[in-house]
Amino acid sequence: MTVLKRLAFAFAAVLAGLHLAQAQTPVTRIIVPFAPGGGQDVLARVIAPELATLLGETIIIENRAGAGGAVGATAVARSKPDGTTLLMAASSHTISAALDRKTPFDPVKDFTAVAHVGNGAYILLVNARLPAKSVAELIAYAKERPGRLNYSSAGVGSATHLTMAYFANRAAIDIVHVPFKSTAEALNSLMTGDTDMLIVPTLWSQSFMDTPALRLLAVVSKTRIPLLPNVPTVSENGLPGFEFTSWFGLLGPANMPADVTLKINNAVAKVLAMPHVAANIAQQGIEPLPLSTAGFGDLLTTHYAAMKKIITDAGLGAE
Question: Which of 187, 188, 226, 270 could serve as a FRET partner for 198 with CA atoms 20 to 30 Å apart?
Answer without folding.
Answer: 226
